[in-house]
Amino acid sequence: MRGEFLGVNLTLWESNMTESHEQATPVKCAHCDKTMSTPVVCDYCHTIGPEAAVADHFTLLDLPRRFDLDPAEIHRKFLALSRHAHPDFHAEDTPEVQQLHLKVSAALNDAYRTLKDPAARAAYLLSLFGGKSSADDKSVPDGFLGAMMMMQEELADAIEADDHAEITRIAEVLKTQHDGLVRRIGTLFEQYQESVSCKAVVDDLLGELRQQLNAVSYAKKLLLQATNAEHAHG
User: Fold this and answer.
1) 3-class DSSP state for residue 69?
2) Which of the four pLDDT bands, split at 50, 70 and 90, describes residue 155?
3) Do 111 and 148 belong to one domain?
4) pLDDT per residue as tens digits for the range 102-119
5) Structural domain boundaries enclosing 40
6) From CA 152, how far away is CA 177, in angstroms rounded?
7) Which residue of 22, 100, 193, 224 sits 20 to 30 Å from the alpha carbon of 6, by its own alpha carbon?
């Protein structure tokens, strides 16, 4: 029967997921007993595996834990898996199967929403690597806050003067700064991959990544203000 694979204890799958990944133990499909190349969907019978409901975003989309991912590949993996997991394709299955696919479909949407955005992807990856959250560390790079406060004042003056050209200039400067911060984040993740054996270096890199991500968040908000003002005063 199609729903029999749910006889696998989901709690057991969840508790053993990390251990099985670390040991690189092949995962077998609980429906057809074939070896699965990923823990998400069976290559043979296309059954969604129970582990898909609790996998991290990268594992769920069958992507490496890296920052430098191709947006087109993220989209392609999301669409391919969504076709298997969408609840509309399982209306004839048991309630247990339908519930699993609802959970996996929601997890896929969350994973795609996170990984397609570079800043969100970086923040998620940082958390997987043990870095601090923005709630625990609100620091930014030296000199950044003063520069942003100056830009904010310039933007406010330009909006008050209805100076569209100046608003556009500020928006372009903020976009350049935002993109530069994202590029720096990419460089830091590359350095992290090369330095995982040295704890002191890793700690410094994770700390700087947190600062850069905080700066990106601040710059993105100010850039949005400038873009909205540019449209309003165009």
Assistant:
1) coil
2) very high
3) no
4) 788 888 899 999 999 999
5) 2-116
6) 14
7) 22
**Do 35 and 97 fall into the same domain?**
yes
- If one compares 107 and 186, the residue with the highest pLDDT of the two is 186
Q: 191, 205 in Cβ contact below 8 A?
A: yes
Same structural domain, 10 and 101 = yes
Helices 144-160, 199-232: inter-axial angle, 10-degree rounding: 0
One-letter amino acid identity for 132? K
Distance (Å) of CA 53 to CA 18, 60, 75: 13, 8, 19
Query: Both 151 and 211 in a single domain?
Result: yes
Structural domain tally of the chain?
A: 2
Determine contact, residues 126/206, Cβ cutoff 8 Å.
yes
Cβ–Cβ < 8 Å for 207, 165: no
For residue 126 the two structure tokens come to 């940082």
